[in-house]
Amino acid sequence: MSGWFWVMIGVYLAMLAAVGLNSWRKTKSAEEYIMGGSKIGVFVGMLTFAATLFSTFTLMGMPDFFRTHGVGAWIYLAISDAAMFFLVIWFGLHLRRVATEHDFQGMAGLLSQRYRTRFAGVVYLAGIFLFLVPYVAIQIRGIAIFLSAVFPETLPAWAWSLGIVCVMLMYSEIGGLRAIIHCDVIQGTILLIVLWIIAVGCIRFFGGVGAMFEQVKQMDPALLSTPGPKGLFTPQFLIASFFAILFLPVTQPQITTRLVIIKCDKTLFRMATGLGIFTFLVLVPTIAIGLYGAVKYAGLPTGEFLENVLLHDQHDVIAAIVVVGLLAAATSTADSQLFALGSEVRSFLLLKGKSPLFVTRLAIFAFGMAALIFSIVSGNQLVLIARVSFAGTSMMAPMILAGILSKHKPGPEVVAATLLGLILFLYSQLPAVTFLPSLPKAVGPVRFDLALLLALGLCTALSTAYRSLSPRHPS
Fold first, then answer.
1. Which tens digits make up the pLDDT trace of 348-407?
2. Is residue 448 part of a domain?
3. Does some domain include residue 164?
4. Could you read off the pLDDT of 282-339 as tens digits, one per residue?
């Protein structure tokens, strides 16, 4: 497979280089570099959204999640994603209106203007740094571990991670958002093709979809119901996960930027519809791959299962395409988020005047190095780490929604409550330390992260209602 792999990877890198150079030639100003230079249409918008949302944990994490925890994982992602697309339209329309009024350059700067305090921008920047850098890191780590297992004598995992980060930074730094968006089109297409090639082979192994579920039922019926064989998919886990995914368009800077640069409102509607179809087409094959693994590789560790199902059970050419697909999945999300982190720093600094473009490039590089370090030291639970990242950023959703939707100036108490919520959530995820008190796993009958999100939502709603009714707090 190695010969085919180097051919495929050469073609893939050549396409990325061509896109990066073409974008560099067309990018004439800092505004074009940061915001993509043009309004994007339905097809490009759908693929860049999809590539940003679906990443390494989709191709590697979700099949293993289905294999381990059963079809309840469908509720974890698919139903939550379906609701998220309605929020894309609703929130997108409001955000586009406010962005036009305030010359949108990033959410950190916009929130600082809406709350009339830079404290709001600081809290937002802290939140996305704390929870997006680990998410970027797991994309890099997942593919690096996989490549080091496939080519054990070529490079160690840390060297693969370094190479991936260098490639992402190269075309991102050169071509800006325009390069990332057009690379997303390539990467999203590769991801979809790879998933279905593998899934069709898995279904053929069983002799059909019905036979697949019958064999899974005979082996372990708990895989076909909630809470699953390990009891993970409890109602509260699913509800908390629902909100974590639902608020992605609100809290993720790489998504909010794409909502703003969509060509028009009609394009936004069509893009969200297309994205829903694309999501269905991406998630369905991961069920077949996961259940195939549950029957054939039930006792194997995650790494060996993925190596077998993605490589050893495939033709050499297909296996090479799969590895390139994994690289595409990792880079399509990581590059967007690293670029968004750098752009948000610039939008915050613009509040005090001009911010040179090299500051944005420097911030992107710094975040890339932070993600590289975290990828080397982080664990292997891709889906669960991703969920923690989503849940952490969701704590900022009430503050952002109040800033975008409120007709009056939101109060600083909302920002202070959000900061406290981020600290408590982060503390709840840290391992227990003997000299520090641990936070409860639940508040009464409600799990801690869900209770914290509900408390922040209630606090924000009360603050917004009070300020809208009180004449002492004009808009």
1. 887 665 666 777 788 888 888 888 888 777 655 555 566 677 788 889 999 999 999 988
2. no
3. yes
4. 888 999 999 999 999 988 887 788 888 888 888 888 888 888 877 777 777 778 888 8
**What pTM did the predictor assign?**
0.83
Bridge-partner residues for 331, per DSSP? Answer: none
Identity (one letter) of the amino acid at 407? K
> Tell me, what CATH number does 277's domain have?
1.20.1730.10
Q: Residue 83 sits in which domain range? A: 2-380
What contacts 69, CB < 8 A, 6 or more positions away? 223, 228, 229, 230, 232, 233
Flag whether 420 is in a domain: no
User: How many domains, the chain?
Assistant: 1
Is position 238 within any domain? yes
Among the listed residues 170, 144, 143, the one whose alpha carbon sits nearest the alpha carbon of residue 17: 170
**Closest to 143 in 3D by CA, of 82, 187, 91, 96:** 187
Residue bearing tokens 């199902």: 309
* Spatial distance between the Cα atoms of 65 and 428, rounded to a whole number of angstroms: 23
Question: What b/e readout covers 3-27, taking b as 16+ CB neighbours within 10 angstroms?
Answer: ebbeebeeebeeebbebbeebbeeb
